[in-house]
Amino acid sequence: MDDQGSPATPAPWATRATPAPGEPSTPGEPSPPGEPSAPSEPAAPAPAEPLDRRAELSEFLRSRRARLKPEDVGLPDFGRHRRVPGLRREELAQLAGVSVAYYTRLEQGNGRNVSAEVLDAIARALRLSAAEHAHLTHLAKPKQHKKTKRSTRPLHVRVALSQLLDTLDGVPAYIGGPRSDILAWNRMAAALFGDWGELPPRERNWARLCFLSPAYRDLFLEWDSKASDMVSYLRLYAGCHPDDPELSALVGELSVKSEEFRRLWATHDVREKSHGVKRMRHPLVGDLALSYETLHLPDDEEQFLVLYHAEPGSPSAEALRLLASWGTDAVRAGTAPHED
């Protein structure tokens, strides 16, 4: 902040994400924080091809094999004779206890009739995390997982959940949905992140905001970590919902508009991160270090509650108190109230 209390950098809500081709540039009508907004009517995006599950399986296995060194798994390293990074297929097959031909077919995207035991053995050989193991299973054995027909209608947040958000005084909180969509939020979330009600529903999406809005890049001091977490989440989601046309459209849009997204998407990293600490530089109250917790709703697997909080007595706790006392209107205006 400068000496007058005005922001040194634009507030996140002051800069929209880059509009998609054919999308109106005028934001929709704002809605009260804490309530899901009625959908605006932007131009419908062009139909997107679903993600190719076989290609995803092939590329995921190749990328996990390439990151392992022989010494990581107790094999001798004949580095000068290696033409590609990582383990050879023969070495991986030996570690997993399967034939080279069998593993080769799997790495070519043919997961038909592969058993759970073989997938477990390959996961152990590749040193996969729990999230990566689940992702491999989703890609190779989709029929083992319940498929639900996805509705193209906007998701709605239950009234009781919206009311719960409003009771969380002093705690930034929001309800997230599929593909990192932002469905509902409270007054403190609007004060911290900006009033998402001023954006069209399609732009209320963390991936779009993170990669296409310069102001959100400024907001997160560790933007690289935020961006990596976001892409890892989308990869996990893609493994479960490869036929989701909105996901395909989102990935296509971000791949065209963001070099950073393309680079991270190509790594095939998957990670499930439900808690941690985010460091931010708010345009009015300065730097904050806020812990967050993600709580999945048991009766709706596609919605989750995210809450941010500061360590009691810390400068970040005082900053949140100031945001709460100033109110959303003052924060939206981008100026702190003058003290007498």
From TrEMBL:
Pfam families: HTH_31, MLTR_LBD. InterPro entries: Cro/C1-type_HTH, Lambda_DNA-bd_dom_sf, MLTR_LBD. Residues 1-51 are annotated as: Disordered. PROSITE patterns: HTH_CROC1 (PS50943). Residues 7-20 have a biased composition (Low complexity). Residues 86-133 form the HTH cro/C1-type domain. GO terms for molecular function: DNA binding. Residues 21-36 have a biased composition (Pro residues). It comes from the Bacteria. This is XRE family transcriptional regulator. It comes from Streptomyces antnestii.
